Task: inverse folding
């Protein structure tokens, strides 16, 4: 589980609780200008094959950094339908797929912050 904080044009993803250990990250920061798309993550979406570092049990949890052809993604999801997908360009990461308490509220906050920054 994560909390997403938008401050000005900076987005900070705070990894909470035991997921810090499972995903080996405390936070991720990027600029709103690097966001190329946001949406609900499909429950059947899976991370790229190479886990570097992190935890993955199919259908149970994906937490950590995953790499694939030209992709570097951070995942922190239990595959229970509460995940949002944030696509990035120009950042160290190309995508985040993370569980949040209220996906719709997070998506509205990101879209409205991006509109204000534009």
Result:
């Amino acid at each position: 589980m994560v909390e997403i904080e938008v401050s000005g044009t900076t987005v900070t993803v705070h990894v909470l609780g035991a997921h810090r250990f499972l995903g080996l990250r405390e936070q991720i920061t990027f600029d709103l200008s690097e966001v190329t798309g946001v949406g609900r993550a499909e429950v059947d979406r899976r991370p790229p094959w190479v886990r570097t570092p992190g935890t993955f049990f199919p259908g149970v949890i994906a937490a950590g950094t995953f790499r694939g052809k030209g992709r570097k993604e951070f995942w922190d999801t239990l595959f229970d339908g509460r995940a949002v997908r944030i696509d990035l360009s120009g950042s160290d990461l190309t995508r985040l797929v993370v569980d949040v308490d209220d996906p719709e509220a997070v998506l509205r906050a990101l879209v409205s912050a991006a509109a204000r920054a534009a």
Remarks:
- The mean pLDDT is 92.
